[in-house]
Amino acid sequence: MSTELRRLRNYIDGEFRDAADGRTTEVVNPATGEAYATAPLSGQADVDAAMEAAARAFPAWRDTTPAERQKALLKIADAFEQRAEDLIAAEVENTGKPVGLTRSEEIPPMVDQIRFFAGAARMLEGRSAGEYMDGMTSIIRREPVGVCAQVAPWNYPMMMAVWKFAPAIAAGNTVVLKPSDTTPASTVLIAEILGEILPKGVFNVICGDRETGRMMVEHRVPAMASITGSVRAGIEVAKSASADVKRVHLELGGKAPVVVFEDTDIAKAVEDISVAGFFNAGQDCTAATRVLVHESIHDEFVSALAKAAADTKTGQPDDEDVLFGPLNNPNQLKQVEGFIERLPAHARVEAGGKRVGDKGYFFAPTVVSGLQQDDEIIQNEVFGPVITVQSFRDEEQAVEWANGVEYALASSVWTKDHSRAMRMSKKLDFGCVWINTHIPLVAEMPHGGFKKSGYGKDLSGYGFEDYTRIKHVMTSLDA
Ligand SMILES: NCCCC=O
């Protein structure tokens, strides 16, 4: 007997709708490998409808006062708190994440980030108005960009949705957001929550695949395309957005170096780095994946890290001892397994290295040592619970290897030597440098990278400004 699957729907112009042509895809819970819902596979007609709704809603939303937008976002934050258990349940089905950690590590920052952007709505800055030419006064207007096409990833579906809609809506834009095809459930619930607070058309959600995303970016309506995803996807978005010179905002992953010097408290560093590497099954663009450790403490560090990995548990969402859940989908599992299968002969698997169980897409906490700078697993993003270790000789080599990848999102340095920490923070070519910590984020500070990690910032006043445009108005004083 087949169980009926829950039907997720698009949210367009204030109402829930199926795809115009009725197409759907099945949505699978990665902790069980079983389908629990269907979602629309949206096509051109759905993208058109969402974009047109957002375009119709834009003038009125643009013309709201910052105070009105703040009030709406504060209501949204309160509603997120009130509906927290529903959001957690949806996110856990989406991702298989541990329930307790989703409650403690995702809901509070998301609510705080929405409140931060509520405040930011009233704090836009520009240069002072003034007479920069005789007889003329100049002023700067900060304006919303327009309709924003936003594509969110599957690793933190609800938090990345917040990072996208909150600054956009706070600045007076309207939004069409597409969740990943593997994780639409929490975003559809977010649409329900926002739908009770925002005017129709201000926030629209369409479900679909890569093709749907391509239609959104190529659409004539949006003035801006924002995507968190792979480098491949980011390059495609940048190329298609260039056809009509849309603004692009790209967060494309990372390969964070974790540089551990010989004066570090090894036990403390290992404890923190293993959590920062394995949290969310390493499916985090800032994960502490690539440890570079000074040769004098290498062996001690590796054996402590291998023990920490062996003591780290992955498993079902309701198991409270679990640090992380499954990989998000079968392709991701295959990708992580592939990196391990292709390890060079000089690599040593110190812990893990294999799938756990045959139900769901779980992978063991893994540590690989003996690696060299040109190895595939050092140069490419694994996006799995795999921490690699390399042994470095001196500060110069550590910097060269840390920077010697195409990604440039986040990094960390571990040392008690303040001067060295400050030197390293200047030399590390990454959008974030943590010192004696790795992975914490705060709403007030920017998240975003350089090089192939993309451009544009999430969070912070800088992220907020990315969703605004600057207009110069000059007036003659003689008329
Ligand atoms: N820790 C949050 C990172 C967002 C992207 O993966």
TrEMBL record:
It holds the Pfam family Aldedh. Signal peptide: none annotated. The active site is at E251. Keywords: NAD, Oxidoreductase. GO terms for molecular function: oxidoreductase activity, acting on the aldehyde or oxo group of donors, NAD or NADP as acceptor. Residues 19-473 form the Aldehyde dehydrogenase domain. Transmembrane segments: none annotated. Gene3D superfamilies: Aldehyde Dehydrogenase, Chain A, domain 1 (3.40.605.10), Aldehyde Dehydrogenase, Chain A, domain 2 (3.40.309.10). InterPro entries: Ald_DH/histidinol_DH, Ald_DH_C, Ald_DH_CS_CYS, Ald_DH_CS_GLU, Ald_DH_N, Aldehyde_DH_dom, Aminobutyraldehyde_DH. PROSITE patterns: ALDEHYDE_DEHYDR_CYS, ALDEHYDE_DEHYDR_GLU. PANTHER family: ALDEHYDE DEHYDROGENASE-RELATED (PTHR11699). Belongs to the aldehyde dehydrogenase family. This is Gamma-aminobutyraldehyde dehydrogenase. It comes from Streptomyces actuosus.
